Amino acid sequence: MRDGVDAFVGWNGALVLVWYGRTFGEPLWFDVALGTIWLLAAWLFAVVLAMVLRSVGGQARDPTIGFYLLSPFVYLIGLAFAFGLYSRGS
Description:
Elements: H1 2-23, H2 27-54, H3 63-82
């Protein structure tokens, strides 16, 4: 249960900091939070990839696993568009 709470706080805390940095023009908070989100997404990708490599024959036989591997990147692309492709405002 503790890992779930840590992940929840990590993702949502970083999203709040990204919003704060973008809204109030604080580029340091924005950059740190965005880096945290990228690192968490990379960690998620690594965990799922490790599970695939430990499977029988090192192959993902279920197509759902492929979607799990793709999901962090889809999340990051959506986040990039949502925050104006990392613009710092006008």
